[in-house]
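Researcher: If only I could read backbone structure tokens as easily as an amino acid sequence. Walk me, if you will, through where the backbone shape changes along the chain. I have put the entry right below:
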Amino acid sequence: MDVFCGIDWAEGHHGVTLVDDTGTLLAKCRINDDLDCYRLLLDLLVGHGDTVETPIPVAIRTSRGLLNAMLRQSPRKIYAVNPMAASRYRDRHGASRKKSDPGDALVLANIIRTDAPTHRRTDAPMHRPLPADTDLVQAVAVLARAQQDAVWNRQQVANQLRSLLREYFPAVIVAFRDKPGTLTRPDARRILAVAPTPALAAGLQMWKPTAMLRRAGRRRGIETDAERIQQLFREEAPRQLPLVEDAMGTQARALLLQLDAACEAVDDLARATEEAFRARPDAAITLSFPGIGTQAGARILGEIGDDRSRFATDGGLKAYAGSAPITQASGKRHYGGRRFVKNNQLNHVGHLWAFASLSGSAGADSHYRRRRAGGDWHMQALRHLFNRMLGRLHHCLLARAPFDEAVAFPPPAAAG
């Protein structure tokens, strides 16, 4: 008899349900996030036939967290079921829309009972278990996502600071608007720290901005930039009332502290991500592709993982990344467009990868221009290029071979 487990995950507690291969309820309980409850769950599974050779599969509504980490320490299969899919399955068995934690756990157990393969039945592969990634690739995924979130958070704080400066001190924005990074630059943050208001900025002596530029790591053009900044700060411009200007300067200092912390977090996470990524054996293959650096490579491989059985074909990987189009057909209506349900992190870095590959690969640039000439928009052409590069990456990872421009983009005569 096959036994299946469904866990309705929540922040404070989790509902657990066990059913057999006929759908009969065998046991149910409620556990919390502590070690004793985890042991209770394992004892419950062992009491219903869980062994190392035939572990009981578990369906849960999340792929992250301590509960998943504890369950994945054994060779059991963990199925992360999308909450929307679980809601649609719940409607199969009743139209009343009733909902409860034990009922949701029962729904999850029945999903893998009917739609997931087992050691006795292999004809229902509608749901796939979580990949068997190594500890290293899981660590890379955590660091890469954290670094990406830190970059977005840094830009959000920088936008808030820029919006504030536009209201009372636009000269700072003008001083660094043509520089890469604008307000997130170390020299911009140092100068703003010593001169957060127009009154303080107008009284700066020449040596002050020069010293701030040197402390920020600048080596060239220091005197020229310092003189330009001093002239901008001393030009006549509209001003707020003195007390209002001082209040806004205080607010700018507070935002600047947040921005400094965000920039430091981005740099620390970038170093940790690069160190973990270069320790992976797939790093050299990924870095051989045009347009991929250490941060982009860490994000890509962190989302793909190193379980090569996860994507049997490149089509599955392309659908997972959202680069492959989706078809909606009904009667005479036929529509092919982009996917909305996808791995957002992988899709985001994929467009950056495709755009950067235009300057690093003649074949990629030719492919992009050919798509644009055929009527594609900019984002459509980039998505198509990302789709093609992703297929090449899937092949290279399986074959353990680096990127080859001649194979990825053969000449038209050879292709014909």
User: Anything to note?
Assistant: Residues 370 and 381 are 9 Å apart (CA to CA). Residues 283-415 form one domain.
